[in-house]
Specification:
Blueprint lengths: L3 H15 L16 H30 L2 H30 L1
Amino acid sequence: MTDDGSFEQRLQAARIKQGLDAPAVAPAPPAGSSPAGIGLRVGIELVSALAVAVAIGWALDRWLNTTPWLLGLFVLLGGAAGVANVWRLMMPRRKAN
């Protein structure tokens, strides 16, 4: 009964040789792992966080009639949120190197 491992190996080799079992193929790298993809994502993260914050600040300023104050505050908060998103995006990549 100690030949079970050897039998399984021989059976697997025979199945691969006959084309019944395809050998395991390594998965392709993620589509966004190219430098251009990473740069595009960084830009989108920054711009989208800032755009959302500006829209919120502008809407609150119009609603509360506090014209430049909330817009300025939310521009700063949106910029900080964009930088935080980029920081979170780049930290795992930095650890891998």
